Amino acid sequence: MKIKPTSRLKALILVLILLLSNTSTATASNDTASNDTISNAIANATTLSTEQQEIDIHHYYYNQLNELEKTVYDTFTKFKAKILSNQKFTFRLGPITKKETYVYSVSRARQAFILDDPEALIWFQNVELSLHLKDSDAYVLVQPQDSTNRYSDLSSKELPNAIKTFEEKASQIAKTLHGTDREKLYQIYSWLLENVTYDFTFELPNTRSAYGALINGKSVCSGFAYAYKYIADLAGLEVLYVTGILNSASEYHAWNMAKVDGKWYFIDATSGATNLRIFRGCYFLMSTSSRNYSLDTDFFTYPS
Q1: Among 271, 264, 270, which residue's Cα sits nearest to residue 287?
Q2: Is 303 part of any domain?
Q3: Could you report the per-residue pLDDT of 165-222, keeping only the tens digit for each?
Q4: Which structural domain range is residue 165 located in?
Q5: Are residue 195 and residue 140 in the same domain, yes or no?
Q6: I need a labelling partner for 19 at 20 to 30 A (CA). Which of 27, 110, 121, 255 fits?
Q7: 89 and 185 both lie in a single domain
Q8: At what angle do helices 221-234 and 181-195 cross, to 10 degrees?
């Protein structure tokens, strides 16, 4: 389905609102966030431009969050082990008077967390987040799911071994890289093109995460881009996961940005894998001024 970037981000927030609005009190269940609330939250979001922040490739999106969002992000980091051991937990957000702000903040923190650490999407696909009200405070319940879903065929009990297998595979690939940063970036690109095929059915599980790309060899654009960043991180390369519009197809898309010799470039492994072999090199280290790519700046900013 072809959608505009702003619509997609609002859709993401709406999905999270549906998850986060499952509350334990009658008052909460009757308090429904509207589209106007979402629009206001987006309009009032505080982000830092890339000129205002020092680029830390492992916390690039974290550094654009406000203090509340950073607290939520840090909580996800702190409780990762509990999630992988199939334990549920809650954490306090603050007074219930700020419920709409909390919905947006949790959504944005979750997105930043996954963008900085692609592995997180593998287990986040098996986690349900819900907002609960107790007395005058709002809490988030983080609860692993025993059953599989349309995005993942890994149950919470299978996750620890699946994560271990995924990490070992990524590490094996990273250890084969050699040469200059440019050469290493191309070797990751080539590995994905040779070993991963695009899921044109859009129905296979795990294809939206790096797990589908590295373990199952099937992926959509997000899986390609998450896998690329994850391996690049292991190799000490400066790479970001980015999203926006692929103008030639008028579709929402995910790809990567990589820094080489002090300059940022686009890398699109998905387009490389889905085009004729003679054109594959065209999608490696492209200029960021390419007219075929429009970055989505609704949630975050990007290096210039």
Answers
A1: 264
A2: no
A3: 999 999 999 999 999 999 999 999 999 999 999 999 999 999 999 999 999 999 999 9
A4: 159-295
A5: no
A6: 255
A7: no
A8: 140
